[in-house]
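okkk here we go again. third time trying to get the glutathione bound version out, last two times i messed up the smiles copy paste (missing a bracket lol). double checked this time i swear
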Amino acid sequence: QFVMPEFHLYGHWVSQPTRAVGWLCLMNNIPFTFHEIDPLRKQHKTEEYQKISPNGLIPAIHDESMNLRLSEGNAILQYLCEKNNLEAWYPCDLPTRALVLQYLHWHHSNTRLFTIAIYRPAMMAFIKKKSPDLTEGMKKVEPVLHKLEQWLTNRSFLCTENAPTIADLSCYCELDQLKVFGLCELERFSGISRWMARMEQLPAHAEAHQQLNSLHGVLMSRMNKSKL
Ligand SMILES: N[C@@H](CCC(=O)N[C@@H](CS)C(=O)NCC(=O)O)C(=O)O
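finally!!
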């Protein structure tokens, strides 16, 4: 009996690169089986998971139809676009595609700092019911915000004038968490703010952000209770 090959996504919706991959799948009706791997519970350290993602990080995919196991969010986004001919998300026009790739590589040592320098320390502080001190982190991320603002002042989206690409998805899924938790005062940047409003209008935004929003709700209510 023929069994339909499945496409598996491993990760957690609160993880930025997992959210970008899951959201691309939701928007493009790519069926996937989601396996929650919670780093806080060390589920990414199990022997079973390391067979899928040798670097032990989330997200990772297992595409049974290609016998492929793959990690690195941006590589997964690109793979999904190429496999499913998602030309709007990864344009075929070479110069535009080159700009998308430029962003996807730049992302790791720039936009990703939002998570490493700001978001994670803030989460740790909230979990301990303390106000975060983000002075050092802000020094690292401020130049990144200015660069993004410069790009988004000249264009509606990071790499094109009229439609988002996987570069926008990858980038947005770092900035969204700052907005939800009110970190970095993003309102100072009009280009970034207008772009975020555009991204919020995309299909399945609510579904992709449900867990991030509920984490915010839980942590803020704990903070408020501890102040009483
Ligand atoms: N470069 C990787 C980074 C993946 C990554 O850092 N994932 C985090 C969650 S967002 C993780 O698995 N953290 C667990 C750990 O660091 O032990 C990507 O873009 O996919």
